[in-house]
Amino acid sequence: MKEPDMRKIRRSMEKTLDHRRYEHTLGVAYTAAALAMRYGADVNNALLAGMLHDCAKCLSNEKRISICEKHNIAISPAEAKNPFLLHAKVGSFLAMKKYGVTDRDVINAILNHTTGRPGMSLLEKIIWVADYIEPGRRQAPRLAQIRKLAFEDLDRALVTALEDTLDYLKGGNMEIDSMTQKTYDYYKDGGKL
């Protein structure tokens, strides 16, 4: 099968996403590429996963639910309550069906970029961290520290960012996907359940 055309994908993202989301997407793609270079991962896969990680973000909640129902994509109770959370699942589906992505690691990186999962691949970690630290981000309390850490120890950067994410969600009394907690618990103990 033919490799996805990055120029076409970039143009499609520019048309599909609002300006702010498109700028974020470019930031994630280029940050992911830099992290891939640093850790010896496939740079093209990092760019591709970064470019497509939010490809379903600007769809309406109704459209995300409709795609899940039509294609038998499971919807968790947390996702049913907050359908915007479905953008990762729907995005991984669109990456395959609309953009021709066949690489399982790229698909999983898109699928798991919001919650993470225990036992993530290097690319999955890169996309998760790149989404957190890309240059347009401003809010996270230890952002400067995590950005530096990302290029020194990816797992420590992941754990620190997950910890801050969970603190933020708990502090705002927001819904926490159980996978985010499981991911943190797994990696805080050095990657062991």
Give a brief description:
This protein is mainly alpha-helical.
Give a written overview of the molecule.
The radius of gyration is 16 Å and the shape is globular. It contains eleven helices and no strands. The chain is mainly α and 193 residues long.
List the helices and strands and how they pair.
Elements: H1 6-16, H2 19-39, H3 43-52, H4 61-70, H5 77-81, H6 87-97, H7 104-111, H8 122-133, H9 143-150, H10 154-171, H11 178-188
Helix pairs in contact: 1-3, 2-3, 2-8, 3-7, 3-8, 6-7, 7-8, 8-10, 9-10, 10-11
Mean pLDDT: 94
Largest sheet: none
- Count of DSSP E strands? 0
* Helix coverage percent: 55-70%
Principal-axis shape = globular
Rg on CA atoms, Å: 16 Å
Give the helix/strand class.
mainly alpha
Number of H- or I-type helical stretches: 11
Bin the strand percentage: under 5%
Q: Report how far the terminal alpha carbons are from each other.
A: 37 Å
Q: From N to C, what is the helix and strand string?
A: HHHHHHHHHHH
Q: Uncertain spans, ≥5 residues at pLDDT below 50?
A: none
What key attributes describe this structure?
193 residues; single chain; globular; 65% helix; mainly alpha
